[in-house]
Structures are given as C-alpha cells and as structure tokens.
Amino acid sequence: SPLHQFLAELPKCEHHLHLEGCLTPALVFKLAAKNGVALPSPEDDPAYASPESLAAHYDNFGSLEDFLQCYYRGLRVLVAEADFELLAWEYFVTAAEHGVRHAEVFFDPQSHTERGVAFDTVVRGFKAACDRARRELGITTRLIMCFLRHLPPASAAETLASAVEGGHLDGDGDHHDDDNEARRTITGFGLDSSEVGFRPELFADVYREAERRGVRRTAHGGEEGDPTYISGALDGLRAERIDHGVRLVEDPALLRRVVEEEILLTVCPLSNVCLRVVEHVGQLPIREFLDAGVRFSINSDDPAYFGGYVLHNFCAVQQAFDFTIDEWRLIAENSIHGSWIGEKRRLELL
Ligand code: ES4
Ligand code: ZN
Questions:
Q1: Which range is least confidently modeled, 44-48, 241-245, 286-290?
Q2: How far apart (Å, rounded) are the C-alpha atoms in residues 239 and 220?
Q3: Domain Adenosine deaminase spans what residues (predicted)?
Q4: Is the pTM value of this prediction over 0.90?
Q5: How many A from CA of 46 to the centre of ligand 2?
Q6: Is the CB of 149 under 6 A from ligand 1?
Q7: Using CA atoms, how far apart are residues 102 and 99, in angstroms rounded to an integer?
Q8: Which of 31, 184, 236, 316 sits at a 20 to 30 Å CA gap from 287?
Q9: How much is the pLDDT for 173?
Q10: CA 264 to ligand 1 centroid distance, Å
C-alpha cells in the first residue's frame, strides 16, 4: 500500500506480545532436539511431522481454546535459561525490523513452573534478552508477568510470592522516572489464558498486592468475554489497560468511561481473525474507537502463531480502514502515551 513505508518508519510501541507466542515451528523443533523433549508422534498428531506441517496447522485454529492447547503443548521445549533468552531475542530482532522502539512483553511463569522449570530461570533468560535489546537494538522493554486465569487464584498468589522473593518487584514506584522504573525487573502484571468462565474478580487479591507495591496492572478482557469482563477488570482489579477489549463497542456507557479514564486497549487484529473473534479485520470496531476517542495500540499477540509481526498488523488495519497520515500519527502518539515509561523516554519517542 502507499503508506507501507510510512507505517514501517512510524515509531511503534508494542504492548500485547506473549513471548511464548513467539515460538516459531523452527524453534520448536530446534529446542526439542537440543533438550531431548519428545514432540507428539506424527501418528498421534500429524501436525508435528515437520516444521512446515506445524506452520500449516498454526493457520487454522477454531477458537482461543483450540489455540491455547497448541501454545501450551509447544512451550514444553523451553527448559534452560538460554532457551528463554533466545526466544525473546529472536522476537526483539524481528520487532526492530518492524520499527518497534519500545516493547512491553508478556510471559506466563506458571506455564513453566508447572513443568518444573524454576521461576528465576525464566525471568533471568528473558531479562538477558531485554538488556541485549536495549544495548544492540536501541529498543526499550518492560516485562509483564501474566497469571493464567484457568489456574486457581492460590497458584497466582504463589507466583506473586516467587516474584517478591526474587526481588523482581523492587523499585521505588515513581512511574515518571525512567531510572527508578528500570530497577524493577517486572513492571506489571497481566491476566491471560481462557477468558469465559474465569472472571477477573477471582484475582482481586493479587492485583491489590500489585497496586500496593507500585506494580502496573493490565488484564485480557473483552476478547471472547462480554463487556462485564472489561468492567470487572477495571473495578475488581483496578486495571490500567485492557488487553484486546474489542467487545467494549457493545457497551456505550462503558466505552465513554474508558475514554474519560484514558484506559488503553491493546488491540490485536490478526489474532482476532485467527481465533475467529471476527471474520475480517474490517469487522473490528477500530474506526468506532478512533472516532470516539478510545485510545488503543495495535499489536501482534502471538506472532509465531497468527501469521504476522507488528507491521503486518498495521498494514492489515490500513488495508481495511484506509486511515490518513494524521490518524496514524494520533494512533502512534496514543500508544506512546499509554506506555509504562518515564518522561525522558516518552520525549525521545514522541
Ligand atoms: C493468548 Cl490470544 C491470547 N488470549 C489469551 N491468553 C493468551 N495467552 C497467549 N495468547
Ligand atoms: Zn494476548
């Protein structure tokens, strides 16, 4: 499209990216061989015959639940600190090529600790990649630790305790000062995995503790769940952002509140098509959000699985909505303002 070069160069922030969702079929096979992890036999699941057949399977998920099964099965190949570092580093390299200047990335510690991988192994590997991204690519990063909502709140509380014991939440909570912010290894908490039936309010205790410690708060909501999953995250968890949030459009009063409170939605267009939230990107309420003053960023979610990194998502939105250059500048500015960075970095990005 005529705006492709402009979109490629636009300084982008990514706020909705699961590091485990960057596990490409090539990396699945490479790490399985290195770590001696058995993949499903091709008789049991023909998708695992080769990286190519696995990639073909990634193009055809029936739902969020169908995808998550594949996601949790794949991540079992991640074992050593170096595996986590490599996974995140490969993402940062591609993100830099797509014009990402700042990335706030999710990880799912329980998906690893449940398999016997130590919490600190995961965090150290991801942290090493973040430090390298800053040094070698000029990308600033934040780590956001997500709780799996299909597991009991007590498991989330144990995960919070691991983060506290490792000193990963230490920092002095002045969100406007970049140096203070950078002292915390883990900047924020999120909530992900199966949505419907696992209400946000179940996790009120760990979120209250997050707020007490000056940890930022987001939660997935309004992807498959109705708008009460969004209001539940705002009221019950005091979330500062909503991940996805596309079903906000069904509740005009709640939409006005999101505008007034400057809540950022982290929208993931290609993910929504892949997981059949909508049939086409053009069916997403992105024009409505822009016209109503809802702030949102455009993100890749699980790029290894959903057929594209961040620039692919920007281009898909452009193809569907044909925004003007000024509209794109506003989208980019809103995503800088919605980033969990201090004033100095904000001015560099603007
Ligand atoms: C996810 Cl797309 C999506 N939704 C909820 N949880 C997730 N974990 C990884 N990707
Ligand atoms: Zn997500």
A1: 44-48
A2: 10
A3: 11-350
A4: yes
A5: 26
A6: no
A7: 9
A8: 236
A9: 65
A10: 18
